[in-house]
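Continued from yesterday's entry.
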Amino acid sequence: MSAAPGGAGHPVFTFDTTHHALWAEEVAGEEGIPCEVIPAPPELEAKCDLALKTLPDQVETLAKALGEQGIVFRLAEA
């Protein structure tokens, strides 16, 4: 599922590993949270080249779901 288009000030989830990024996408799908895997914005200096974005009203829901699964992430504005 696609989330709203990105832009300045759009929250994105970044990860330390590709495994965590893809696991996060899987968790989002299982929870019915719309998301999209995107290239990690260079200005965030993420360790993994992948990031995840979702609709603004789903950020807290996705953060909670990822935390419950033990997925380490950082939430940043891009």
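--- second protein ---
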Amino acid sequence: MFKNSEMFNKCLDQNILSAKNVADIYGIASEKIDTFAIPLISTIKISFPRAVSQGDLGDPDNHGGQQYAPILDLEIIDVS
């Protein structure tokens, strides 16, 4: 989710959360990445399969709520 539509649109224009970029960050094939831009709420949803089933012994994040951390370092360049 973005603070405002301006930042959302800059992110889309700069292709920052492309399937390729996300795949590189998480170390998975880009074909397994689905991204959905939702302008009405200035949000980009990123979806990809879990390495293990939810609740399995090796599941580090049972609810999938902490998977955003690796993308926090991405920067949107202000070109205005």
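Residues 5-55 form one domain. The chain has a mean pLDDT of 87. Will compare against the first tomorrow.
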